[in-house]
Structures are given as C-alpha cells and as structure tokens.
Amino acid sequence: MLTQSIGLFAAFLLAANALFQLALAAGVRWGDAAFGGKVANDDGSLPTRYRVMSLVSAVTMGLLIVVVLAASGGINDGAIGPGFATWVCKGASVLFALNTVANLASTSKIERWVMGSATAFLTVSFGLIGWVF
Questions:
Q1: Is the pTM of this model over 0.90?
Q2: I want to staple 116 with a disulfide (CB 3.0 to 4.6 A). Which of 17, 28, 102, 104 is the partner?
Q3: 69-103 b/e with 16+ CB inside 10 Å = b?
C-alpha cells in the first residue's frame, strides 16, 4: 500500500510537470520558469528548439508515469516486466537527483523552488521504489 501511494504521488508530480512542458511546447509564455530562465524569447515563449525539447520531456514523463505505476503496483501492465520497471526507476532516481542539483543552482526562483522541490520529491519517490521496495 505504501509503495502504491509513493507511485501515485510520483505519477501526479510527473503529470503536472508533463502538462507544464506541453504548455511550453505549445508556446505558452512561461519560458522564464524553464531551462534556467535564460532561453526565453522576449515575449516569454521558448525558441523552437526548446519547445521541441519540452515536447520530448513531456512524452518521456508520460512513459515514466506508466513505469512508476507498474513498478509500484499501481497498475498491472504485463508489457512492462517488474525487473525492467525497477531498473528504470533506479536510473530515473539518479537523473532526477542530477536535475534537482541543476534546478537548485538556477537563477530563476520558480525553477529553483518549485521545480527543485518537485524533482527532489521525484528523486526520493523513484529511489524508494527502485532501490528500497
């Protein structure tokens, strides 16, 4: 039950972040809150290259939602083996830890506090599911 709750929490954070990235990819003017706050156009939108990166990020997070739910027992997806899902959670925990360090080093207050907190929670969630449970 605890593992499922952690998986659902991680899935919620990933879904919120995926929606944020989809909005950036669609041209919403929140570019100051992403990519260190340094690449936004004058109108606040992201340049095309970064919009594509946001789209790829959103798709990746969508896939991670399925993986974390499968690894935590939140869904029973026979296409994803438990060993593979656990391995992906271990790798994701490391990547989210590195991302947390980058977010905390950002000059953007939104990226530092909001995204830094979210990736820190994702690091712990994926770490618990991949390495502990």
A1: yes
A2: 104
A3: bbbbebeeeeebeeeebbebbeebbeebbebbeeb
C-alpha distances in Å from residue 4, one per residue of 68, 128, 132: 9, 11, 13
The CA angle 61-52-62, to the nearest 5 degrees, is 15
What is the number of structural domains in the chain? 1
89, 126 Cβ separation under 8 angstroms: yes
- For residue 74, what pLDDT is reported? 82
Which residue in this structure is represented by tokens 């919403």?
28
Distance spanning both ends of the chain, measured CA to CA: 11
What is the residue type of 99? N
Domain extent at residue 62: 2-132
Residues of the chain with pLDDT under 70: 77
What would the two tokens of residue 55 be? 């789209």
Given this model, what pLDDT does residue 58 score? 98
When computed from its CA atoms, the radius of gyration of the chain, rounded to whole angstroms, is 15
